[in-house]
């Protein structure tokens, strides 16, 4: 089942649920971080988290080698204020490819209160404080994969169910579990529902994922798209004449490699569209075009004010040499560190996007996709009467999708609680 929604800042997500002997997946968008932490983590504003109290479990390093008994400490969070013990469901919110600093105070909290759910959130291996190794050498990174992460979730589920049972003096109880995730974590939620043997056909590799750029262009509109393409041409030109001065203009003189610099500029534009701030990108450029102001200087101002200061982007995270450091000073390794990123407006080579295969043979999965999100083309978008993108032109669509999600949770909970129901 696929639903679409836009709103002020909607990112592509897959909301996924997991019910007690089985699993149900659902994905919820979270607003981009503000302040010094940026999009990949950092200090939270008051009230931004339900809890930041750290808890720990011993996680298996290699789930596929029975002779390797090594473990590492995996961080997780627990919020029980809304839990209606002992029969309330458990909402498992998957932290994705960044440091997990707590359980976000998002719409998930509203649903937890509605359904009397416990909320738990494990940190992804190799991120934040859950890294098995201090040194990120190639040898040590071989245990970083979505497949290992899925088994981490399975082990965590068993561990936490036993922990909760002990807390409430229960024996052998199995709660109704719902798994939530956004973007990559949303895909993990879907794969978790589909169970491990099916992973080989859930993923579809898309070579040269040009749909991302196409969506950015569509979202920008003709005037803004033309301005961005002109910026591309002018920056390429200035790089050939005096690369240092143009990099200084953008506050990115640390990026010695021109390809890294252009990647940085491309991402700056993409972020504006992906996270619901197209006016921040387009309005200054369109005005500059009309008034004769320098487009490059205008875009540089946007990059410095929005992408670096407001968004909290670290310029060095786009530096290939920095990424070769096996002991970096942070583990907020988002897309530009461990994941292949996307091309935009000819500034980057062809890449591969891993998309959810359109013919997924599974039930009780809800995919929600922002209609302006460039990544939506790598998600499942059509499967039911709810998949009408024409209904997704305002924040009201977000509210509609949320109500649909809550309705599905209510239905699946009632089915799960039927004694004779087989999952």
Provide structural commentary.
- By secondary structure, the chain is an alpha/beta fold.
- The protein has 2 domains: 262 residues, Rossmann fold (3-Layer(aba) Sandwich); 140 residues.
- 39% of the residues lie in helices and 14% in strands.
- The protein is built from 11 helices and 13 strands.
- It has a 9-stranded mixed beta sheet, sandwiched between helices.
- It is globular and about 70 Å long.
- The relative contact order is 0.20.
Tell me, rounded to a whole number, the average pLDDT.
74
**Class by SSE composition:** alpha/beta
> Unreliable segments (pLDDT under 50, ≥5 consecutive)?
1-45, 196-207, 331-358, 384-393, 419-423
Helix content: 25-40%
Shape verdict: globular
First-to-last CA distance = 18 Å
Number of helices: 11
Question: How many discrete structural domains?
Answer: 2
Strand order of the largest sheet: 1-13-2-3-10-7-9-6-5
SSE series: EEEEEEEEHEHEHHEHHHHHHEEH
Under the CATH scheme, the architecture of the largest domain is 3-Layer(aba) Sandwich
User: Over the alpha carbons, how many angstroms does the gyration radius reach?
Assistant: 22 Å
What's the quick description here?
The protein is an alpha/beta fold.
Secondary structure elements and their pairing?
Layout: E1 2-5, E2 13-16, E3 24-27, E4 49-51, E5 55-60, E6 71-79, E7 90-93, E8 103-104, H1 107-115, E9 118-122, H2 146-167, E10 177-180, H3 184-194, H4 199-202, E11 203-207, H5 211-249, H6 258-274, H7 278-291, H8 295-310, H9 320-323, H10 334-338, E12 352-356, E13 365-370, H11 395-416
Parallel strand pairs: 1-13, 3-10, 7-9, 7-10
Antiparallel strand pairs: 2-3, 2-13, 4-8, 5-6, 6-9, 11-12
Helix pairs in contact: 5-6, 5-7, 5-8, 6-7, 7-8
């Amino acid at each position: 089942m696929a639903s679409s929604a836009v709103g002020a800042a909607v990112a592509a997500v897959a909301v996924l649920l997991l019910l007690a002997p089985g699993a149900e997946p659902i994905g919820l968008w979270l607003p981009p971080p503000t302040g010094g932490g940026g999009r990949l983590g950092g200090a939270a504003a008051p009230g931004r988290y339900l809890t930041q109290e750290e808890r720990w479990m011993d996680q298996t390093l290699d789930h596929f080698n029975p002779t390797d008994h090594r473990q590492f400490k995996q961080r997780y969070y627990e919020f029980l204020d809304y839990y209606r013990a002992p029969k309330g469901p458990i909402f498992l919110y998957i932290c994705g490819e960044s440091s997990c600093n707590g359980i976000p105070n998002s719409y998930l909290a509203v649903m937890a209160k509605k359904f009397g759910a416990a909320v738990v959130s494990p940190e992804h291996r190799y991120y934040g404080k859950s890294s098995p190794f201090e040194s990120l050498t190639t040898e040590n990174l071989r245990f970083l994969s979505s497949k290992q992460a899925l088994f981490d979730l399975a082990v965590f589920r068993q561990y936490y169910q036993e922990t909760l049972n002990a807390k409430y003096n229960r024996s052998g109880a199995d709660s109704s579990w719902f798994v939530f995730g956004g973007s990559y974590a949303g895909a993990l939620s879907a794969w978790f529902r589909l169970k491990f043997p099916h992973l080989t056909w859930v993923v579809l590799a898309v070579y040269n994922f040009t749909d991302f750029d196409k969506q950015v262009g569509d979202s920008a509109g003709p005037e803004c798209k033309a301005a961005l393409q002109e910026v591309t041409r002018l920056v390429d030109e200035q790089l050939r004449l005096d690369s240092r001065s143009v990099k200084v203009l953008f506050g990115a003189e640390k990026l010695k490699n021109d390809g890294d610099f252009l990647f940085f500029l491309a991402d700056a534009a993409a972020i504006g569209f992906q996270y619901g701030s197209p006016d921040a990108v387009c309005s200054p450029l369109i005005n500059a075009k009309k008034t004769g102001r320098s487009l490059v200087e205008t875009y540089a101002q946007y990059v410095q004010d929005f992408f670096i200061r407001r968004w909290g982007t670290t310029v060095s995270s786009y530096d290939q040499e920095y990424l070769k450091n096996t002991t970096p000073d942070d583990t907020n390794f988002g897309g530009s560190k461990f994941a292949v990123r996307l091309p935009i407006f000819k500034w980057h080579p062809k890449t591969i996007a891993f998309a959810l295969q359109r013919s997924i043979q599974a039930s009780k999965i809800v995919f929600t996709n922002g209609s302006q999100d460039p990544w939506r083309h790598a998600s499942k978008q059509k499967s039911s009467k709810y998949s009408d993108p024409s209904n997704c032109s305002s924040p009201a669509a977000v509210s509609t999708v949320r109500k649909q999600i809550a309705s599905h949770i209510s239905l699946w909970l009632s089915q799960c609680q039927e004694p004779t129901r087989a999952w």
